[in-house]
Specification:
The complex is a heterodimer of chains A (136) and B (381). With 136 residues, chain A is mainly β. Chain A contains no helices and ten strands. Helix content of chain A is 0%, strand content 52%. In chain A, the strands form two sheets. A six-stranded mixed beta sheet of chain A has the order 1-10-9-6-7-8, with no helix packed on it. In chain A, strands 2, 3, 4 and 5 form a four-stranded antiparallel beta sheet that branches. The two termini of chain B are 19 Å apart. Chain B contains 13 helices and eleven strands. In chain B, helix 6 crosses helix 10 and helix 10 packs across helix 11. Classes of the chains: A mainly beta (136), B alpha/beta (381). The interface between A and B is medium-sized, with 33 and 34 residues.
Amino acid sequence: MRIVAEKVWIREGIVAEGPEGQSLAGNRCKACGQVYFPKVELACLNCLEKQLEDVLLSRKGKLCSYSVVHMPASGFQPPYAVGFVDLPEGVRVFTPLEMEEGKPFKVGMEMEIRVGTLWEEEDKEVVGFKFAVAGG
Amino acid sequence: MREVAVLGVGQSIFGKFPEKSIEELGREAVSEAIQDAGVSPKDIQAAYTSRLFLEMTTGQIILKDLGIADIEMTNVENACAGGATAVRGLWKDIASGFCDIGIAIGVESMTTSPIARKLIPPAKDDLDGLLGMTMPSLFALIGRRLMDTHGATEEDFAQVSVKNHHHGALNPRAQYQKEFTVEEVLASRMVAEPITLLQCCPNTDGAAAVVMCSMDVARKFSTNPVKVVASVLRSADYSFRKEDLTSFAFGKKAAGMAYEMAGIGPEDVDLVELHDAFAPEEIVHYEDLGLCKVGEGVDLVRTGASALGGRCPVNPSGGLLSLGHPLSASGVRIMCEATDQLRGRAGKRQVSGAKVALAQMLGGMANGLEAGAVGIHILAR
């Protein structure tokens, strides 16, 4: 019998459940409308107002840039891909990217969030988010 | 404000010297700078020292064996801009009249640091860092974007490295001192696509020092002092304000401030020393410093305009790619190169007739910020 590894979030509270599935959990300043991911805690960094509301960010965005990396970093073993994805809310997210056969990355292509295991270590699975080429 | 001058510069050998202590590296640079300035250690009224990795009172431990103690000493850190921050601190003290003559030092022993042979780690618990962000990855992403928006090619990035290694081969103090071809650069180990190993700066131990003073004092020691005509230090703005991945908005802003302070424009600059830790970023800085129009950075590489002999040589020292990058030393070391160039004593890498030199160092990385800090100084004779 395989012992089920404990699942640990890379950071708590960065993903929330929405009508279309799990998505990045950000917040927005009620005064100036600036949207943040990860959430700002104390006040809007743009206008310093303290009225912030939680928002669920779009599940899809455009690939701003990408790189396939050939050295380890954080818990990732090479090769793995990282990139920036621009979400419609005006947020640019740094994110691991899902590498899939037959789906090469291209700047400007549509990407979609996938929540799941990023890597495994000893007796736990580290859970977070990635973006993958949309429509897969 | 008073005019400030560079009176003397000094630099240790750059390379991998795990047997050399911080004190030894620092003393090599400081001794040379003081001798070059033609002053006595007793003349030094203030010292700013930059260092990133470990231990305390770095300035005091370097200077105590040279007969410099019991003065005002400040130790600073600002990632790759740390050395420029030390220079800026000293500049402010002299310009405002708090002291007449002082020394700025930058030193780093990367091979004995906790990150020897490793990447510079992000701050603990930094979300981007946990998700795999590293310095090479960031500049790889910037490079990929340049390929899409600027028509840059992998060969263009390799050419930046070829150029700086060519310059470094003319500099007896460079870590590499070796020429490479575009093919060799591209064939070196892939680090983060499109960046290969020879497009990354090496781990380096080294130190640099600069003696600065008021112009009144400088005239007593020299008939041809080098003037510091601009000094700017700026912290990074929030990344939510950053639209263009191929520009450091705060670096561009700092450049504008420096040109305004100096009363000159980028067209007046004869040579530039800048942060080329990873080859693609040199092209970004060309545009942010106004050396060309936005979108034309790649052309400076292709036409040779940024190479020795070109319109505005960039990193004639060899830059971080070839000369090496002891993090906190680099911001002081670029002042040494600028001064040597303006004094016409840069040897085989001399930019002929150089009258104005710009020294830029940018660095640091934090989730939510564009980078860490940038320091820009403009020197003139």
